Amino acid sequence: MIKSCRTAALVVILIALTAAYTLAASTSAAPSDTAIKASLDKAPKAVFPQTKYEFSPVFEGHEIKHDFVVENTGQAPLVIKSIRPD
To answer: Which residues pair with 32 in a beta bridge?
Structure first.
């Protein structure tokens, strides 16, 4: 279960990085360093205050749950389209 939470967190990070890269790549055919920096400054930025969680031992068959907080500290809306647990 711990592995699946880490996997979910990594998937969210990869989605955010992909969104930032796509935003930077779409500004022009050959963007300058200044244009890339300006685009990234306006891009969404996912921040995870907690990146892992250790579950206590539980009996098989019991449901366990933990919520990970995702904060958008960027200037553009952060859109999470899907999360795939492992």
So the answer is: none
Q: Is residue 81 part of a domain?
A: no
What is the rounded end-to-end Cα distance, in angstroms, of the chain?
A: 8
Q: What is the pLDDT of residues 17-35, one digit of tens each?
A: 676 666 655 554 566 777 7
Confidence of residue 59 (pLDDT cuts 50, 70, 90): very high
What is the dihedral angle through the alpha carbons of 65, 84, 44, 49, rounded to the nearest 10 degrees? Answer: 30
Has residue 46 been placed in a domain? yes
Q: How far is 53 from 70, CA to CA, in rounded Å?
A: 14
- Count of domains forming the chain: 1
Is 78 contained in some domain? no
